[in-house]
Amino acid sequence: MLGGDLAGFPKGRRPKDDVVTIELRAVAGATFPLIDPKFVPDTVVASLTDGLTAASVSSPFLNKFPYLGLPYAGNNPANTP
User: Fold this and answer.
1) Which candidate in 20, 35, 72, 74 could, as Cys together with 50 as Cys, close a disulfide (CB 3.0–4.6 Å)?
2) Which has the higher per-residue pLDDT, 21 or 59?
3) Burial classification of residue 41, based on how many CB atoms lie within 10 Å of its CB (0-12 exposed, 13-18 middle, 19 or more buried)
4) How far is CA 67 from CA 37, 61, 81, in A?
5) What confidence tens digit (pLDDT) does each residue in 26-68 have?
6) Phi then psi for 69, rounded to 5 degrees?
7) Continuous H helices in the chain
8) Could you list the residue range(s) of the whole structural domain that residue 43 is in?
9) How many domains does the chain have?
């Protein structure tokens, strides 16, 4: 719901939603204005990320169901981005 998009996390979730970054920003105060409209979050909240980008995740989305690529093998460090 950050950014006024009701289809996104946490009310819904699209596969491309960066849930970790959204959670970090929420904990840092990005969602507090929903409770107290006078509260202004620090400007650094918007730059907070988990360090990953769409380009750093090599598993592409598929054109047909199940749409998500194969997960990384947890026991093979060569598969990690």
Assistant:
1) 20
2) 21
3) middle
4) 38, 5, 20
5) 889 888 888 899 999 988 998 888 887 766 666 677 888 887 7
6) -70, 175
7) 19-25
8) 2-79
9) 1
